Write a sequence for this structure.
């Protein structure tokens, strides 16, 4: 049998493998490089298109602050609701509000803005509480209702869009690709814009609020570090959120909203590793679009609106909407 000629490169690779095994080392798992981002606002010509590497705190989900021309983590700014879930109030103080899985809680309530969050979660038998994450939002303003949620996702793929969107009970389908934009014909000033090719949008209502939302999974590493016990059957896709408000009253309330209130004094115990805010009962809502939480401020009526307008608001507020587990649509019922 003839001998095959073997290249020097092949011999080198084989020798390296045996050296690794002999020394008891194991090849390191592939770790993707941090994301590179840039400013895209034409009104900042000195910064636009400059490339920046995401910070270590958010290596794959940062964006550029065009004013300072530097990369920032949305989850580290006032108005953020991320992770398990970690809130950063309007006063800049960080706290956790765990709520309960499969329940809805009012996170912002004001005369013309009400936002409920639906929590998903997993029970740890060694703890007295659920691990929870925000899976969807039900937003009421004027005489409109808006829904955004993360689809149930067994296995995560960054390229697969896992967003559910609906406006006034009708599904919203965004075109693919970063920058794709949707605006309803009957509601000027309302827009939903993709900030990535998939799973990231900005929802804006002119003169009222702006929400940056991204669908993210619980990774195996996160599950291991925090002892979540997440398996391959469900990656618990949820929303990381960043809120900016433009017209809140001094009486605003809700888990996050209260921190913007005129008389708010933080009840969070400072100096502990994980400051937790309670109040499950006063913030509990009986539906994603219901405004029956104990601290509700919502009327949905601006000055000068007619009684008919108010009836429309109540009609929309009485709808109960939920995302299908596997489908793209959103089902609403009275």
């Amino acid at each position: 049998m003839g001998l095959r000629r073997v290249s020097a490169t092949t011999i080198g690779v084989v020798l390296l493998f045996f050296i690794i095994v002999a020394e008891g080392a194991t090849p390191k798992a592939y770790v993707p490089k941090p994301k590179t981002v840039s400013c895209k606002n034409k009104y900042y010509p000195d910064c636009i298109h400059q490339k920046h590497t995401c910070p270590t705190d958010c290596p794959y989900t940062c964006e550029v602050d065009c004013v300072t021309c530097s990369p920032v983590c949305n989850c580290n700014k006032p108005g953020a609701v991320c992770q398990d879930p970690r809130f950063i109030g309007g006063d800049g103080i960080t706290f956790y509000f765990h709520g309960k899985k499969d329940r809805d809680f009012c996170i912002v309530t004001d005369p013309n803005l009400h936002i409920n969050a639906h929590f998903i979660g997993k029970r740890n038998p060694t703890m007295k509480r659920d691990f929870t994450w925000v899976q969807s939002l039900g937003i009421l303003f004027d005489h409109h209702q808006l829904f955004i949620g993360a689809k149930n996702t067994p296995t995560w793929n960054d390229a697969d869009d896992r967003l559910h969107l609906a406006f006034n009970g009708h599904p919203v389908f965004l075109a693919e690709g970063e920058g794709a934009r949707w605006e309803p014909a009957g509601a000027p000033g309302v827009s939903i814009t993709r900030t990535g090719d998939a799973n990231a949008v900005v929802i804006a209502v002119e003169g009222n609020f702006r929400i940056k939302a991204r669908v993210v999974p619980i990774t195996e590493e996160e599950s291991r570090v925090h002892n979540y016990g997440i398996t391959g059957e469900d990656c618990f896709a949820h929303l990381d959120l960043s809120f900016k408000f433009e017209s809140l009253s001094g009486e605003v309330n809700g888990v996050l909203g209260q921190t913007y209130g005129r008389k708010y004094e933080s009840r969070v115990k400072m100096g502990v590793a994980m400051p937790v805010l309670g109040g499950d009962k006063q913030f509990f809502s009986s539906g994603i679009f219901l405004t029956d939480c104990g601290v509700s401020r919502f009327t949905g009526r601006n000055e000068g609106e007619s009684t008919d307008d108010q009836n429309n608001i109540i009609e929309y507020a009485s709808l109960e909407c939920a995302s299908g587990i596997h489908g793209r649509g959103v089902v609403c019922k009275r």
Notes: The first strand starts at residue 36 and ends at 38. Residues 95 and 272 are 10 Å apart (CA to CA). The helical segments are 8-22, 220-226, 280-283, 307-317.
